[in-house]
Amino acid sequence: MTESTGAVYDLGYTPYDGERRGRKGARATVFADGIRRVLGIRRKGRRKILPWALLAIAIVPPIAFVGISFFIPVDVGATFDANLQHAQFFSLGGTIAMLFTALAAPELLIPDRKDGVLSMLSSRPLTSTDYLASRFASLIAIVLGFLLAPQLVLYVGQAGTHPDGVLRGFIDGADALPRVLAVAAIYTLAFVPLGFVIASLSNRKAVATSIYLATMIGLTAFAEAIVQNATFIGSRWIALITPINTADAANAWIFGQSNPGSLLDAADIHPGFGVAALIVIGLAATSFSIIRYRRLM
Amino acid sequence: MTTDPAFVADPTIEVKVVSKWFGQKVAVSNLSCSFGRGVTGLLGPNGAGKTTLLRMIAGLTDVSDGAVSILGQDPRKHHSVYQSVSLVPDEDSVYEDMNGRRFVRYAAQLAGTDSSAAAVNEAIDLVDMQAAADRSVGGYSKGMRQRIKVAAALVTHPEVLILDEPLNGTDPVQRAHLIDLFHRLGAEGKTVIVSSHVLEEVERVSNRVVAIVDGRLAAAGSVEAIRAAMNDKPYVVRIGTNRPRELGAALFATSTVSSIEASDEAIVVRTADIEGLGRAAPGAAAKLGARVNAFQPQDESLESVFRYLVERR
Q1: A41 touches chain B (CB under 8 A)
Q2: Nearest to B43 by CA among B157, B158, B205
């Protein structure tokens, strides 16, 4: 007969005298977690499909464009209008960035509230503003990535097909970089703060995504109806509440392109006013999100 | 040096005349106590204000009045204090789609402590969760969630560990394991607060108990000392009757009553033996032909905790 034996082992608890990184480390952790979360990194396969599919949609057209330019035996440099290409790919990239924001902003904010993790986050060296800023930074970084990746492909492709050599191509193409960065920042400003404020108010990701898209599209439709039909004084200024139109108009303006059919054009408003309106809307939305999270955390 | 058992000689956490209200509801009222190194049980029935008090101590909820300090600092103003504090909240507070190991690592990264595989493994071992650590938290039972939350707190190596109902949903073996762990942490000089609405759990976790009822401090000290104090404490009971003076005189003749105040419709009786009073009052009223329309302990909430502590009801 086997005698039954038992033992209780002291697993111990090693004292820790190492570094504690504080707020900076906590912010970096929330930021990195946000990047992984929205791109589906270290998550199930189905979580990766949408973000990577959108990135592919954003990046394949400029790759195709550059590829065609490379293989067509014409004087590419003469026909390559860099400003037009930058503006066109921003217009496409902007739409994709908006769709991405619609998916990513709820993914960044809602699970933390729904799963009750805010309590854990709050009891770490992290203020509510730190938390929100880190999540904001994650989304901004990826949205900028979505907007800039096609532009980078274009820049490299443009340099590679430059008639005076690659180096000359890089130098010439660099002239547009400040404008590229400015337009990317404007699109980000148009999409991200509103995405955050809507995600901060809803407890369901699908609902937040739907409300965001409905808001962005609805604002444009509403403003178009007012600008085109209303007769009251100052009705044209309603055009300033449309982030999509404003960002598109600013894109065309900065790259010196015409933007036929633009709501700001129809309302006879300079795109500079549109950018100012985006800043005001962005600040208001961000302030609202901060106030909301100060109450939650 | 204070002798009030609500306070300890060398506190790491001080709660000074703290109140918290949410709109019209008062969750915590003028509560003062302190906590030191070692394990303290925070006892109280559901809805007593334990979670609110712990959230105020951890700085998650602002106080409406009074002050809380943890390691000498106001947690709402000095976020650096969180480098030494970990809270295990009562709510789930876990990412459903994350596995346990990643959740613990994330907690270490947030706290800025060692998040290496070895450190994460050590914390997971402490709560005996190695076998399930690579499974998604969404599939965990309540007890497993509790344990992975404790691991996520331990991996940060806190000086102060605040656990809100950590034994909820755990089976007896897990409970014994966690209680042993809390003892060891307390013995190492950590400040550990464990809340529970179950007296037996609190008794096993710690000999020092802070009991709150209806947001007020109801008792503090060792369970034995509280029981002894409760036995000596008079109860105040209001008896509604149409013949207060006569009934008061009749009851005063019994040895269980220490004082009586009479008004037009009732008497207020002080007694150390509420059950004896309960037996004597109907008989005395019947003899006098008096009608009794109320028999109300004047401090319902304290009454319940007294019974809770003294009689384990």
Answers
A1: no
A2: B205
